Amino acid sequence: MGPRKMFFLIFCFLVIGIGTAQNISKSTTAKYTTEELDLDGNLNEPIWETAETGADFIQFFPTDSLSAKYPTTFKVVYSETTLYLGVRAESEKGNYVVSSLRRDFAATTNDNISFLFDTFNDATTAFFFGVTPYGVQREGLVSEGGSAFNNTWDMKWQAEAQRFDDHFTIEIAIPFTSLKFIEGATSWRFRSYRWNIQSNEQTTWTQVPQNQLLSSLAYMGELRFERPLGRSRTPLALIPYVNTLANRDYVSDDSNVDFKIGGDAKVSIGDAMNLDITVNPDFSNVEVDDIFTNLTRFEIQLPEKRQFFIDNSDLFANYGNTLDNIPFFSRRIGLARNADGNLIENQIIGGVRLSGKLNPTTRLGFLNLQTDADPENEIASYNNMMLAFQKKVFSRSNLGLFWVNRQTFGDDDFINPDTRYNRVLGIDYDLASADNIWTGNFFVHKSYQPGDNQGNFSTQSRLNYDDRNWRFVADFVYVDEEYRADLGFVPRKDIFKTGNSATRRFYPKNSKLSNHSFSLLGVNFWRPNLDFKHTDYFYRATWEANFTNQSTFSTNVQHDYIFLTADFDPTRSPGAVPIPGDRGYRFNQFSAEFVSNPSNLVTYGLTTSVGGFFNGEKYSFGGEVGYRFQPWANVLFGLNYDGIRLPDPFADADIWLATARAEVTFSKSVFWNTLVQYSNQRDNFGINSRLQWRFAPLSDLFLVYNDNYFTETFAPRFRSINLKLTYWLNI
């Protein structure tokens, strides 16, 4: 038998043999009622007395083999229109940890109980809902088998809570119109888990190994319904907005006052498909990005926060891999480079997105958005489109096909003929075994552009093995020099990359350590168009520790080799002499990081690194200190410093990044957030302050103020203020 046939048989064995069926370890039955419950958090309606109880939670942290120290029970009731959940959670002295009254709280800094609903029983996607002892809500979408959370997804539902000295109770009402599911379904995969921050305990209804994520969809129970469910009747939702904006650019001395109207519509198609329509969208109320210090030669990816792109976002965004090649990156839409090469806003005229389930194992996604022309800045109007199919195979794996197209239809003289269109087609296979021990990603992508249809490939093969004690990763990536993804994120081209790692975990008994691990990682880059020259590599050894009080510590040593093909100035200082290219640089670095117990009123984190940097040295330190005025406010102060020392005639640099963040919640409907950021690398001191009043479910009034200054002269740079009203109307 030849080696190719042997490899093929081994691959088939891995793909098929580890794709066994899911095991359901626990089940509970939702009791049917014809009554509509009055939510007050007290659980005193008679129906709760007769409903089945879900109990016997198991620890996930600090250990994963003991019963919960503080028990949690829940019950599920449903009517024709609504799914109800009742919760009783025992606690220690009632000293609950709640950092905010704002919706979509952070689970790791708030006591809360959460519920996962895998309504299509596919073990890859789910809805999640969480509530704190103060009745604060969060909801979102889970994808990639539980490894990806998106809590910017919003739906209408209710929750009320009552607090007592030794326990709290919660009542939840989720309209079936807020969920997608199959008509006639009699059961869902389901799990509840709890973050008991004040007692340093995380528990789950069905056992989850500590090497897995607490949100893993591989370890679920079953929620059974006494009667089959009716049709998913999501109403038509109209979300109009009105926005008044005034701004001034002090650099160009331009002032502008603008009045905008527009909106979105959400249309339900069948049991499991959504059609989203947007006209003249406005994202002025979206939270600003955190400023970062970039000392590398490559672009850094920032998260998508715009609501239109959120629903079923994994269906569009999860192709390729986040480090080397994402064929579709939605943040590219709405931004463009002007004639001077600067990145500026490019107005989106409108668009549509169709996404959801065609059947329990097949998903469809279609997105099409048109951006406006801006001749003054030499920016063409582009149509941006993606079509994606995803098919569940075996237990939890998926096979995906996609087509991305970016194309201009104009004939302006400033349009570069080579950029008139860019198309990327690809096929991805995401492997996930029933117990999530085996995972992987395999893809082949190809791009097409004017006069260049040969080659242009990007491929990857990655296989992970992750059991309780060991984790191994083998990764191989190739990106052709001519591969283009204009709507994607591709930081490096002309590379063949290998990445291999091994991790050993330990779970000491009767120790202040919950677990700790040692890992070795090696990443190598070759350049195919430079006769496969070995241009970059780094080798890293890491020790990580998770303490039983929820604090963490990690330290690593790393050896780097970087061959610069061109001159490079890591300080980005005006007029500085760059480090010479066409030569290699070897250096070593040591780093350490500590994060304190999040249950304390005062929290902090510290990080430091020291070592070589190209032909010089780099010293870095950073820290954050936060204080929680429970539950009304929390403040955070952060400071990071990078000191670069290079030999003459190259420039030294002292790079500072300072952050101050304050979040005040006057009630569960009025919030005030302020973010102040200083970066001398970007020559910017920025203030973003946002006052939000949620006057009705998912309907808001925003007042947003932005102010930016140059750091050298503290002269004003850009200033704006806008008042925006949005209203969510179900029809």
Automatic annotation (TrEMBL):
<dbReference type="Pfam" id="PF19313">
    <property type="entry name" value="DUF5916"/>
</dbReference>
<feature type="domain" description="DUF5916">
    <location>
        <begin position="235"/>
        <end position="629"/>
    </location>
</feature>
<dbReference type="InterPro" id="IPR045670">
    <property type="entry name" value="DUF5916"/>
</dbReference>
<protein>
    <recommendedName>
        <fullName>DUF5916 domain-containing protein</fullName>
    </recommendedName>
</protein>
